[in-house]
Amino acid sequence: MRIKVNSDSLKNSLAKILTVVDKKNSRPILTYTLISVTGNDLELSATDLEVSAKVKLSATVENHGNFCVNAKNLFDILKELPNTEIELVLDSSENVLKLNCQDIHYSLLIYPSDEYPKLIFGNESSQFKLTSEQLLEIIQKTSYAISDDETRLQLNGIYLHEVDSKLRAISTDGLRLSLVETDLEQTNIETLINGIIIPKKGVFEIKKLAESYPSKKVTISVDESFMYINAEDEYFLSIRLIAREYPKYQAIIPSKTTYVVNVERSSFFDAVRRIKIMSNEKSNGLRIQIKEKEMTITANHPSLGDAQETIPVDFNGNPMEVGFNAKFLLDSLQTIEEGEISLELNNELSPVIIRSNSVPNYLGIIMPLKL
What is the pTM of this model? Predict the structure, then answer.
């Protein structure tokens, strides 16, 4: 087998699947990438058995076949090569892949492809399409609230389900919640009505895929165990879903609130970021005093000192003081780029809803902090 391909094209394609490769070395073969040659396409595949990725790229080939080569080793080599055509020659008698680039030559040990897991990258059940921008918005507005608590697996991902012909995405770690909705072209998708949970690693890989194909539609299909994504028949993902029931998140969202604080997003964000410097590293705690026309944000560090800043707000209720985790506030505010935001609450201990007219499809919730 002889393959001629551009070194940068091969490097960039390998970079897309490299993060999928099994880092735990649970099975040595999973540290390898499967390279398949069909027609004039070169296919690179990687998996850790939870998330799998495949990328197609054009190449000039003689003879078809499959083999496995160490993914990181090949990528490290490609990073050091000039941007030019390289030649890959498979010598099956020696079990070696020869890589030739100008006067540079490597011989890489290979493994037979029949040891590699059989990967599936799609079916036609529960199929729908989203744009790359829709996927990126879902991830940008929800991924920050995914839980890292491995004892609560159902919270270790983004929950997707169909509500009133829209796709709703939710993430929560029990202390905060993020919710965003986006339009669906196809509706009444059975698996989405029941809901699916995409694990954190899968979310990261979807983000990378969406960023690689701006302004394109991707095809998504779902079965009982996996989510499959196809971008332009060139970049494929297969993600094992979290097989748990998602908590009844609706109970966390207050049905009505008594008080509303309206504040300019940029001034609030900048003030929180400045005052956070003097907060306790463990709690990131801030005190926010709200009264008519103004909000005062304070923090006190037992060994460094304290800080205070006052900003104008629109508020007509009784004065109150609420404690917040500054990082949680900043994470939520970063999902809103500009304009005025509203903080809706009932009292100092009730969940606080964050909304913005500039992003009407987003809702954030933060539980107050006892200081």
Answer: 0.93
